[in-house]
Amino acid sequence: MPEEPDAAPPAPFPPVQRREQMFPILSAEDIARVARFGGRRSYATGERLFATGDRGIGLTVILSGRVSIVQHDGAGNVSPITEHGPGSLIGEISSLSGRPALVDADAAEPVESLILKPVDLRALIVAEADLGERIMRALILRRTSLIDAAAGGPILIAPGDDPGRVRIAGFLRRNGLPFRSLDPASDEEAADIVAHLHPAATDWPLAILPDGTVLRAPSDTDMAIAMGMIGKPDDQCVYDVAIVGAGPAGLASAVYAASEGLSVLVLDSRGFGGQAGASARIENYFGFPTGITGLALTARGFVQAQKFGAEIAIPACVTTLECSDANGIHRLHIDDGRVYRARSAVIASGARYRRPALTRLEEFEGRGVWYWASPVEAQFCSRQEIVLVGGGNSAGQAAVYLAGHAAKVRMMVRGDGLAATMSRYLIDRIAANPRIELMNRTEVVDLDGGTAGLERVTWKNRDSGETTEAPIRNVFMFVGADPATEWLGACAVLPDEKGFVATGQDALTLQTSVPGVFAIGDVRAGSVKRVGGAIGEGAAVVAQIHQYLAQR
User: Fold this and answer.
1) Cα-flanking dihedrals φ and ψ of residue 242, to 5°?
2) Which one-letter DSSP state was computed for residue 6?
3) Omega of the bond prior to 218 within 30 degrees of 0, cis?
4) Alpha carbons 179 and 99: distance in angstroms, whole number
5) Minimal CA–CA distance to 521: which of 324, 264, 268?
6) Which residues pair with 241 in a beta bridge?
7) d(Cα 346, Cα 518) in Å, to the nearest integer?
8) What residues have CB less than 8 Å from 342, skipping those under 6 apart?
9) Does residue 356 contact residue 477 with C-beta atoms inside 8 Å?
10) Phi-psi region for residue 493, left (φ > 0), alpha (ψ -120 to 50) or beta?
11) DSSP H or E stretch at residue 273
12) Who's near 547: CB < 8 A, 6+ residues apart?
């Protein structure tokens, strides 16, 4: 099979080694191995292989001819990405799951190709380990590049302080989807679109999809449906295991269960990663001596679960778990009416940061009060003084990260210090950072602002009673955690005295008081509340699920 390099992608170029990994050229031997899993198809010059938004395209391997890859957005902008020749792969990470394509592919000349459906691609990756590794690396790097280029995603348009734009941007980012975010006050293209659409004040944000569809003030679910992230459940499908929560525990259980041949469904109301996904840098997780962001770590697990065939539905807010009926089937009801069925269920819904009893707190959520510290939120803190409340590891990681953006981080804790609640390496890093001021025995007592969001914060020293008011527009809350178990009311799993889900008599038993229902990670009573522990429980629970299913 003749080999020739792909045409160069648009600038900026990735490093040479990275580009070779992103655009590998398969040898004749490689193609012969791929051919066992796919079928041949021909395309005439000018014929479209697939378009942005098409689903289930899988992977294409070019045998002869050339294919042009371009991106376009809802504003009509079209940009070439690359041109693939013989031996090239066409696809990115959505090829594994069959989710919508983010680019257009057209035959620049007559093309002969091999087509692998998503299920065939997953079979190839598992069966051909070395070749599968090269293909996986290329798919992951291409998705990263598409995110950087905002290819194939929506354009979000709203005033810079609009909380809806921040919410949707956060949702898309946490699910690994590309997007552009524009302010009509400073961007001419956005201003032209707004002038044409005449949005009302209640229409923000506008989301312009690649096909030109305009969504006004969409919810997360509206965006997910429009982006092809979720569909209707198969009424005939009964999964071996349904996992509620896509944090480290849930993703780990999905990886191990799917890799061992179980049919797996993962449900999450927001995005993969959970609280860990918002960590700016995790430095005490085994195997990563230089640290890794929570999003990067959990994104790998998200892709790995799909590699083994786990089905992931996000967003899917589970409102009710109906425990096993006479046939041993559990039913999971979603807030939009969907119902999924499974032979076993894993509670991995984690815990949520508590909301302090502050007047007007809810009013400023998403408008100056934040429970995450990602780049989406950090952009509002540039050269500003901010307040961060909390003394745990998540608070410490957020303080260090935000100090790289803000002029000053006032870190407030109710207790006498951090030694009892935070890892030593974070305490030392906070002490060494001149932009972080640790304020012990201090608590926020009042929030004030107007239509533009939070404007002033008042705090109190718990010993002296002295109060201080300052013009602060951003407060980050990392105050304790309560279990996310409100959806379990119809299923009589026993909680502990704090509301966390109780499991077996010993620490190794992960089954709850209800047969076939298991609990792992932060939501489980007695868990260590660490990423490593959550992942360990996610792996361990699979053996117990196997045992339960075998007994039935």
Assistant:
1) -110, 130
2) P
3) no
4) 16
5) 268
6) 264
7) 5
8) 238, 239, 240, 241, 242, 265, 329, 330, 332
9) yes
10) beta
11) none
12) none
Helix (H) or strand (E) holding 104: strand 104-107
What are the backbone angles phi and psi of residue 403, rounded to the nearest 5°? -65, -20
The three-state DSSP-derived secondary structure of 129-194 is HHHHHHHHHHHHHHHHHHHHHCCCCCEEECCCCCHHHHHHHHHHHHCCCCCEEECCCCCHHHHHHH
Question: Could you give the C-alpha distances from 36 to 40, 121, 541, in angstroms and in order?
Answer: 11, 11, 35
Would you say 257 and 264 are in contact if contact means Cβ atoms under 8 Å apart?
yes
Torsion angle in degrees (nearest 10) through CA of 409, 410, 413, 417: 80
In sequence order, which residues have a C-beta less than 8 Å from that of residue 176 and are 6 or more positions away? 93, 143, 147, 272, 299, 302
Is 386 strand, coil or helix?
A: strand
CA 295, CA 282: separation in Å to the nearest integer? Answer: 10
Strand pairing category for 436-439 and 385-389: unpaired
Q: Which residues of 99-125 are buried (b: 16+ CB within 10 A; e: fewer)?
A: bbbbbbbbbbeebebbbbbbebbbbbb
Strands 89-90 and 59-64: antiparallel
Q: What pairing do the DSSP bridges indicate for beta strands 264-267 and 311-313?
A: parallel
Task: Enter the tokens of residue 509.
Answer: 């038993």
Q: Which two tokens stand for residue 263?
A: 């049919």
The full DSSP string for 11-29 is: SSPPPHHHHHHHS-B--HH
CA 497 – CA 495 distance, rounded (Å): 7
For tokens 């044409």, name the residue. Answer: 196
Q: What is d(CA 263, CA 39) in angstroms, rounded to the nearest whole number?
A: 26
DSSP helix/strand/coil, 297 = helix
Amino acid letter, 86? P
The separation between CA 305 and the C-alpha centre of its own chain, rounded to angstroms, equals: 13
Dist CA 78 CA 151 (whole Å): 10
Give the percent of the chain with pLDDT over 90.
78
The CA distance from 269 to 221, in Å, is 9
Query: In this predicted model, what pLDDT tens digit does every residue of 28-44 receive, in sequence order?
Result: 999 999 999 999 999 99
pLDDT at 95 over 90: yes
**Interior CA angle at 530 toward 526 and 532, to 5°?**
110
Amino acid at 514: V
- What is the rounded average pLDDT for all residues in the chain? 92
Q: How confident is the model at residue 402 (pLDDT cuts 50, 70, 90)?
A: very high
The neighbour count for residue 536, using CB atoms within 10 Å, is 18
Q: In this predicted model, which residue has the larger pLDDT, 222 or 480?
A: 222
243: three-class secondary structure by DSSP: strand
- Residue 326 parent element (H or E): none
